[in-house]
Amino acid sequence: MAPGFIDSHAHLNLMPEGFAPDEVFLRSMKAGLEALVNVGTNIDHSRESISLAEKNPRIFATVGLHPSEAHLWNDETSKTIAELARAPRVVAIGETGLDFSYPEPSREDQERAFRGHIALALSLSLPLVIHCRDAFDRLFAILSEERLPSPPGVLHCFTGDEKSARTAVGLGFYISFSGIVTFKNASSLRAVARIVPEDRVLVETDCPYLAPVPYRGKTNEPAFIPEILNTLSLETGRELSDLSLRIVRNTRTLFRLPAADRP
Ligand SMILES: [Zn+2]
Ligand SMILES: [Zn+2]
Known about the structure:
The chain is α/β, with parallel strands linked by helices. It has helices at about 20-30, 45-55, 75-85, 105-125, 135-145, 160-170, 185-195, 225-235, 240-255; strands at about 5-10, 35-40, 60-65, 90-100, 130-135, 155, 175, 200-205. It has an 8-stranded parallel sheet. The protein binds zinc ion (2 copies).
């Protein structure tokens, strides 16, 4: 039997036509999926995440405003997100963070929204799902200024270097690897995978985006997670079934997911 896995970051509500969430989920279960965290990127998508989670005991939700929508963070939206965050199926706040790879929204807007999410996560004792691209210096500056929940959360779809990975681990964060780690040109990310402590590694699809090799360019889905696990096993020299079990345990610990048997 293939090792079990948890998709720590998926957007089943954003799958394109022809990929009904129920069908995608069934295929993924056959491939070994035990649970899935569906991540909100704005208010509508956060609501959709909660409703998916309410219908399926193996799906959990997060709520937040993606950095690309940080200009929408204001008294009203932050209040709505805080209300949604109290739903019983919500296991984390985000995705939030900083993405300086595009000029908009402004860095000020992104930092304000990010600090708002951190305060909310702290007040509800929920971990953060952090998206960071081309902004690690500012990200770590803010994280060291603010009080963080414990455990603080995950740096999802990690694309930083070894130094950033060490800093994140030092702050208590988990590091989540997406299909990018399987890409031919991602040797520096595979080097990062070799130095992240075993008890801090998570895996994710970020589906429908970022399908791993050999599905690169196709619509991604949780059934492809074993490709990521295979790459991590090859890179770290850890046995696939041990590594998979460890990563499932890490994910359950971070998001405080109930233990569940595989069918
Ligand atoms: Zn993201
Ligand atoms: Zn995402």
